[in-house]
Amino acid sequence: MTTPVIGVLALQGDVREHLVALAAADAVARPVxxxxxxxxxxxxxxxxxxxxxxxKLAVLFGMLDPLRARVRAGMPVYGTCAGLILLADKxxxxxxxxxxxxxxxxxxxxxxxxxxxxxxxxxxxxxxxDGAPVDGVFIRAPWVESVGARVEVLAEYDGHIVAVRQGNAxxxxxxxxxxxxxxxxxxxxxxxxxxxxxxxx
Length: 201
Fold this sequence. Notes:
Layout: E1 5-9, H1 15-24, E2 28-32, H2 35-38, E3 43-46, H3 51-60, H4 64-72, E4 77-80, H5 82-87, E5 88-91, E6 104-109, E7 120-124, E8 134-138, E9 143-147, E10 152-157, E11 160-166, E12 169-172, H6 183-199
Parallel strand pairs: 1-2, 1-3, 3-4, 4-12, 5-6
Antiparallel strand pairs: 6-9, 7-8, 10-11, 11-12
């Protein structure tokens, strides 16, 4: 089977770190800024950054509707921090004009773990990731307030949901791309491979 091609939405945020992590997890990684680039990838990462800014830039670059369409059609997608917010069907406290891509039946709270100067690292046991807990980097991180029946909770920290999966959509409150531990990205690459195998049947 050929190596999966996975894009990183490159409008704002920690794009380079995700490209490195995906390559380390045996994917071909590409930045994606335009609809024609989105059409060429097997899966997509929505990186951390500022969720309101990313959503507004997605509208400006003509990416929001194509993103929604591909996620609805089953393209594997992984969101970290701001990316988790973008994948939420509902934000508890949205900023004016903030939109989401959607795809996960969850309600999220922005900046739930505190401001920039309250950022921290913590060990997080993630279902589906073998071995020791993942070192989670939480930077102005959201948490998941509640999930629908189809959502699988993969991890909690301090009593709050911080990693979820619904079908081909994966999301974490934290930033595994900043740690050098690529196991969460490897989980996503496996999701992309499985989806490609299903589509080829």
